[in-house]
Fold each of these.
Amino acid sequence: MAKRKKYAWKLGEPPPTIDEHSLAKLDIFEQYVGIYIDRVTRAYGQTQLNLTIVDGFCGGGLYRHGLEMVDGSPLRLLKAVEDAERKLAATRKTGFTVRADFVFVDENPDHIAYLRDRLVRSGYHTRLDKDIFLRCSTFEEAQAEIVARIAAKGRAQRALIFLDQYGWSDVRFATLRSIFATLANPEILLTFAVDTLIDFLSAKRAETRALLNIDLGREDVCALMDMADQQGWRFLIQNGLYHHVRAQTGARFYTPFFIHSPKSHRSYWLIHLSNHR
C-alpha cells in the first residue's frame, strides 16, 4: 500500500507512521488472501494452485505503529500465501503447492529501493526476479505487461490485484474494464477516495484528465452537482458515484466497503470487483 502524498520511504531513514484505519485495511488484505485461497482449493484432490498477486501501489513495505514496526502490504501478502500453503499441505496426503507470482509496483524509485532492501532482509533475496518482481513505474504503465504475464500462466488466470491508490484517479476505469475483458478470473480490490472526489467536484473543476480517467464527463459532473442544493446532498452524490463506478468498471460483481478516517474525517471506499460470485 503506497500513499504517494502522505507516506514516503527512503533508505537510511525511519519508515512512515501508519494510521489505525490504514492498518485495519492491511489486515483485510492479508485475511482476504487466506480466505480466497481456501475458497478456490476446496477440491480435495487438488494439489496445486496457480496464482498471481499484484500490489499496484506497494510502497516500501514497512511502517511505524506506536513503538512497533509493522509490515506493509508486500510482506503481508507474501506471508498470507505462505500460511495458506502450509495449512493446505498439512491436510493433503500428497502435499500442496501454491505457485504464486508477486508483482509489486510503485512509481517512486526510493520506495522500490526500500522495499527491495526490506525483502532481502526478510529472507526473500533468492526469489527476487523469479517469483517476486519489482516494477518502478505507475500501475497504468505496468498493467499491460502484468496482464500478459497472468494470461500466460495458465487457463484459469487467477489473479488478485490490490490497487490501494491515494485518491481516486490514478487507476483508469478503462484499464479495469480491459482487465476484466482479457483475463478469466481476476479479482480487484480498489481504494477510492469518494469524499476527496466530492470535494473536487464541489470546486467545479469539471474538465480535467483526472475526471476522464474515471469516465466522468461534463454532463455527468453537472448531474451530480445538481444534487448539491438538496438536503443530504453528500449522500446523494455518493449514491450517484456508486452507480457510476459500478457501471464503468466492467465487473459483474461489486462490493463496496465504507471506511472512515477519524483523524482526517474523510471517508473512502474499498471496492471488491470480480466477474464471479
Amino acid sequence: EGVPQVTANLMLGPAAPQVNQPVRLTLAICDDGSLQWQRPALPTHAGRVVRVLGEEEGAGERAGDTCALHRFHWALLATQGGAATLTVPMLDASRFGQRLRFPGPSLNFEAAALPAWLPAHVPPVAPMIQADALPARWPLQRPLSWRFEVAGGYSADGLKALLDLQLRESPVLGVYPPLIESITPDDINSPLSRYAVTLFLQPRASGEITLPTLNLPWYDAARGQVAGVALAGPTLTVFDPRWQRARWAAGGAAGLLLL
C-alpha cells in the first residue's frame, strides 16, 4: 500500500519502420510525482542498434487523472527485417531514499525489409542539406574548404562512400579526402543522424570554376524507387594573385612617377 501506482509504456515513432530507418523509441512512465527515475540500460541485440537521446519531464494523464510523466528517448535502427521484441529491464526508482523496482514494459514491432537491389548505403530517409556560402572569388592554388551539414539516415561510412563515388580530381580542381564529423541535432530527441562534412578543394586553373554537384540518394518507400537530393556546386572566379600583386606594384610605381 505504501508503493505509488506506476504505469510504463514503450512506443516507437513511427510504429512500423523500414530497415535502416532511424526511429524514436520512447519509454513513458507515469507516477504520483514522488519518484526519481534512472534511465534503464537497454539490452544489446543482433539486428538493431540503439543510441541514447534525451529525456523529458512534465504532466501526463492516466485513467482520467493527472500524473507526473517521465519520458526517456532512444534512437532505434533496425538492421534486419522481420518481427522483433524489445523488453526493458527492471526500472529503478528512489522515493525519499528508499529504492523501488518496477517491471519494465515490452514492445513488439516489425521492420519492413528493403529491396535486395538497393545499395547498402542508401537509407529510406530523405536527407536535409544545409551548405555554407563560399566567396565569389578565390586565389589560385590556395586550398578551399566547402562545409555543409547533412541530416537523415546516413552513417559516417555510408556518407563517405557516397561522396567518394562523386568526387574526382580534374586538371582544374584538386580534391582531397573529406572530413565527416558527427554533430548534435538541434532537437536532441531526434533519431536522425547529423554530420558536418568539409570538402577540401584546390583550384588549379584561373577563370570560372564550378564545384562538383553532389547527389545524395535515398529510398522512397511510398513510390518504391530511389530518389535523390542534389547540392549544386557553386561557381567561383579563380584569380592568380601574382598578377594582382604585379598590377598593384605597377600602380604604385605609376603613382610615384606621377608624384
Amino acid sequence: ASFTGEERQAQAIALHCALQLYFKTDATAWWKKGTVLAQSFVNSAESPRQKQEAVLLAAKIYGDGGQYQQALELLSPYIGGQDALSLSCRFLRCELLTSLGRLDEAIQAYGELAEICGSFHDGQQSQEVVALGDRASYRQGELLYSLGKNREAASAFALYRRHYPAGSYRDAALYFNGEALEKEGETHQAILQHETLLKQHPTSPYVFSSMVGLVDLYKKSKEVKNKA
C-alpha cells in the first residue's frame, strides 16, 4: 500500500511537470505525455472516489488538447450522481459540449445541472455545489444570448438573479439581460437592468458599456413618448 501511494504521488508530480512544460512550450509531445500519465493515474486508482477524481483530471487534460469526444466518453459513467464530484464531471461535460459546438445540448445540460444544484436545501449545499449551480445557470443564459435567442436569454438571466442573488455573475447577468431586452424592443425593461447595474455594481467592468447603452435607450424611450 505504501509503494502504491508513493507511485501515485510520483505520477502526480510527473503529470504536473508534463503539463507545465506543455503550457510553457506549447509542445504537443508534452501534452501526449500528460495524457499517458493521466490515464495511468486513472488505472492505478484504489477507490471509486479516487478513480472519479482521476477521470475528471484526465478529461480536463483531453479537453485542453482538443480531444473533446474522448473526454466526453471518459466522463460518461461518472455524471449520474448528485455529489459535488459527479456534478463537477457534469459541468465539465457541459463545457465540452460547448467546445464541440453542440450548443443546444449544452444549453439543456447547463439548465439541468443548475436545477439539480438549486434543488439542494441551503444547509446541505457545499460551496462547491453552489459555485457549480451559479456558473451553470449563468452559462445557460450566456449561450442563449450568443445564439440570438434573446427572449429566452432574458428569462434565463432573470432566473439566475432570483436563484443566485449573491452570485459571481450578477453584473454580467444584468448587462446582458438589458442587451437582450433591448433587442426584443423592451426599452423600459432594458433601461431598468442597466440602471440597476450602475447602482448595485459601480465598479463592474460592464459599467462603461451600460452607460453607453443607456444613452441610446433614453433616446429610444423619448422617441416612443413623443410618438405617443
